[in-house]
Amino acid sequence: MTITITKTRSRKRKSRKRKTSDHTNLRLWSELPDDLLNLITKDFNVREYFLLGRVCKSWKSYTEAYMKDFLASQPPLIMILSRYAKKSCYLHNIYESTMYQAQLPNFSKRKCIGVTSGYMIMQNKLRRKSCIHPLLLFNPITGHELHFPSPICNITHFILVSSITHVKEHILIGLSAEVIQSCRSNDNHWSFCYVDQRPYYNSWKIVDGAMFKGKIYVLTDHGKIGVVNPSSLSVLELFEVKCIDYFLNYPKLVVSYEQLLLITTSSPANSTFEVYKLNILEKSCVRMWNLGDQALFLTTCGDSQGGFRIQKDHNSIHELNHSGCCLHSLDGKSKSVDPIRPRERDFKRFPKGVYWFWYFPHLACNTDSLY
C-alpha cells in the first residue's frame, strides 16, 4: 500500500508539470487589433455590434470609431412601435428574420409621428397647452436628442439637415400643403413662408419633398418640381414632369444614393410602380426599367423612404403598409413578406395599435448638410 501511494503521488507531480506552459506570448481579448475585430464584426447585425461595445473599454472605443462604416453596410430595418410608445421600440431585419428591442427615454405625453435622418419625431400630445419643447427628436442608435419648439401649423413631411456654418447645429424643415417652416436647434422660433400667394382656384400645393445634394426639392400637385430657397423658404419652380398626373399616380420623391427618383403607382390597392430618374440640370425625367443592385423602400403613410444596395431582393420595391411588407418588381409582380409582430402583451396597453416605419441605420450617424 505504501508503494502504491508513493507512485500515485509521483504521477500527480508529473501531470502537474505537464500542465504548466508558457503564456507570455498570449494577448488579452481587449488587445485584439482593429483588423481582426473588423473580420469578427463583418457579419454582425446592429444588436450584436452594440453588445460587442459592452465587453470592455477598448472594444467600446472600437465600436464608436467604426460605427459610421458599420451602419453604412446595414440594410433598412422595420421600426415597430406603438404610437404612444414610452419605454421601447422594436427593430426588425426582414432578411435575417431577427428582431431586437431598443430602449427609449421617458416619452410620457408624447407620440411618434415619423422618422427622418435616423431620428424618431416625438410630438407632445398637449401641443397647444405646452410651450416647452413640444417636438423631441431621438436617435435610437446613438441616443442623441434634439429639441424644437412647437411648429406654427401642422406638418406632413419632416426633413432634418445639418448646418454648413455651425457644426453642432441642426435645421428641421417642415413641409405641408401650403406652408414651409424651418427651425434651428439653437433657436426658439420657427420661420415660415406660404408656398403660393395666388388665388385658391389657381394655386398649387406641396405633396412631397426630399433632400438631395444639399438642396430641398418639392413636388407639387400640378406635377412640377421646385427647389426651396433656404433663406427665404420660397419655392423656385424648375420644370414640369409631364409623365405623371398627381390625382391618378400618387407620386413620391425618393433619394437613392446619387439619384433623385420619382415613384408613381396606379392606385394604393393595385400597386403597379413606375420609376423615373430626374435630371435637374436638363430638366427632364427618364423611366427606369432596371434598378440594378439597388432596392427602394417605400411607406404608404409617412415620409420614411429611400434606396439601398442589397444582394438579396435587389431590383425591387419594398412597400410597407399597415398589414406588413410587400415586395414589388417593376414588371408588376409582387409577393408578401410579413414582419414579425411583437408579443401582444408588449402592446396591450396601447389602444391605438402598432405603427410601422422604415428605419435606415446608415443615416443614424450622417445628416446631410443644407447649402
Can you describe what's shown?
It is built from six helices and 26 strands. By secondary structure, it is mainly beta. It has two domains: 35-73, no CATH class; 74-370, Neuraminidase (6 Propeller), CATH 2.120.10. The longest helix is centred in the N-terminal third of the chain and has 18 residues, at 2-19.
Fold blueprint:
Layout: H1 2-19, H2 34-40, H3 46-52, H4 57-65, H5 67-72, E1 77-82, E2 88-93, E3 98-103, E4 110-116, E5 119-124, E6 135-138, E7 145-148, E8 157-163, E9 170-175, E10 179-184, E11 191-194, E12 206-212, E13 215-220, E14 224-228, E15 235-240, H6 246-249, E16 252-256, E17 259-265, E18 273-279, E19 284-288, E20 294-299, E21 306-309, E22 316-321, E23 324-328, E24 334-337, E25 354-359, E26 369-370
Parallel strand pairs: 8-26, 20-22
Antiparallel strand pairs: 1-2, 1-25, 2-3, 4-5, 5-6, 6-7, 8-9, 9-10, 10-11, 12-13, 13-14, 14-15, 16-17, 17-18, 18-19, 20-21, 22-23, 23-24
